[in-house]
Amino acid sequence: MGPLTLAELSEHLRNEGLPNEVRGDGERTITGCATLDAASEGQITFLANVKYRDRVSSTKASAIIMQDDPTLDAKIPQIICSDPYLALTLAIVKIHGHRSHPQWGMHAGAHVDSTATIGHNPNIAPGVTICAGASIGDNATIYPGVYIGPNVTIGDDVVLSPNIAIHQGCKLGHRVMIHAGTVIGEDGLGYAPVGQKWLKIPQAGSVEIGDDVEIGANCTIDRGTLGTTKIGSGSKFSNLICIGHGCEIGDDCMFVAQVGLAGSVTVGRHVTIAGQAGIVGHLSIGDNAQVLAQAGVNSSVKPGEAVLGSPAVPVAEARRQMVAVLKLPEMRNQLRQMEKEIASLKEALAESKANG
């Protein structure tokens, strides 16, 4: 969005509600944002983690965003604030802006059923399919290869990247963003055992996604068997997330890549589930809980609790278990030595008894 001075960036941060102070040359021109190691002349960098503070002296950036630290001799101009990561986010938006989209208007190469409803200012690419009874809100941006099934309802300001499938009867709120390859409302894993065979159970439910949700690439969200799979407003999914049928996800959750939820899991508000974690079906995860990376959760998690390991246990206990596992080779050697010593003592005791 164009260069600006450090002083102008500082003023922008204040206007966004983040108090800050410029130290050094406020007229320094800023053209972009970068990390401490990658930054070059004209770019602003940031320090949000103290373990990288030794890199401040060697960065080639023209300025840095950081907390007040009298012990750190930063030789470049600074923006001092309480939350450098938030400040950097606001700076990136101001300087680089969000990704712009191609402008197709209502392209003649899109297949739109005559009974579908399209809102104002559509931006719909060639190769899009919108089926009977579907309803699309205002300002929709829909990329090639998107399939929108019958009676799907989509809110305003939605962005659908290429090759997404949204199946029959699903609902998306306003300002939803979905990345390429994701499937919404496919059949869940529903089969009844009949002898040694499996009889498919029709998946008659749907999926509802709230406002301001972002879903990464190649995610799958199963429709409910009879009820509705729900994703709460403000929740954010990384890539390769799998949500089983009938799950209910609360508002403002964060799921990192390769998270998997089996059917009918209930997740509270503002829950973080880290990469490669898996949740067994029919469990509940309380508000503000944290499921750490690669955790295998086979029992419900209390509100505010952080769990780790497989099976997942509270973090402090999991760390004790990990330390114990790391010590197993040493403990095995000690055990073998003790066995030798015990055998020697037994032999000496037997000899002593034999000699009276």
General description of the model:
With 356 residues, this protein is an alpha/beta fold. The protein contains 4 helices and 39 strands. The longest helix is centred in the last third of the chain and has 27 residues, at 328-354. The mean pLDDT is 95.
The backbone outline, from C-alpha atoms, is: flat
Mean pLDDT value: 95
What is the rounded Rg? 28 Å
Q: Which regions are unreliable across 5 or more consecutive residues at pLDDT < 50?
A: none
Strand order of the largest sheet: 10-13-16-19-24-27-30-33-36-38-39
Ends apart, CA distance between termini: 98 Å
Strand content: 25-35%
Based on secondary structure, the structural category is alpha/beta
The percentage helix is 10-25%
How many H/I helices?
4
* Major sheet description: 11 strands, mixed
Number of strands: 39
